[in-house]
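As the work plan foresaw, the team has encoded backbone shapes as discrete tokens. One protein thus recorded appears below exactly as we store it.

:::
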Amino acid sequence: MIRYKLYQNKNEKSSTKGMWYGRVAVTGVTNLQKLADRIQRNCTAKRSDVIAVLTELVEVMTDELQEGRRVKLDGFGSFKVGMKTAPAETAKAFTPSQNVKSLHVLFQPEVKVSADGTRVKTFLTGAQVAEYEGYDKPEEQEP
């Protein structure tokens, strides 16, 4: 179940000031060790083998991404590097040291198309949503 918390938009400059929205409530963190334990229970690979493969996957993906390649994991999604840049007056004036401000990794989950044409991200197939119970629910306030 995907849980959410309510919050009110209090931005004075927003046309939706005072309106209520939901944000996903993260209910915990799963690390490599926990994933390896679960994978071991679901297949014939030992936990140590799973950890070795996943650790190596991170290293190989790092190399591939830094070579400018998109990394596609079938059934999972695709990763690629993106960048934030500052503008240059001319193409010749653009230099990485002056204009590249940061790099980041972009992830696009795999999408399945159902019989009715609906596109659903693989990780969200069958997901349900409910309000998170572990927080102080905000009271209605005047906008």
Remarks:
- The CA atoms of residues 35 and 123 lie 15 Å apart.
- DSSP finds three helices and eight strands in the chain.
- The longest helix spans residues 47-66.
- The longest strand covers residues 100-109.
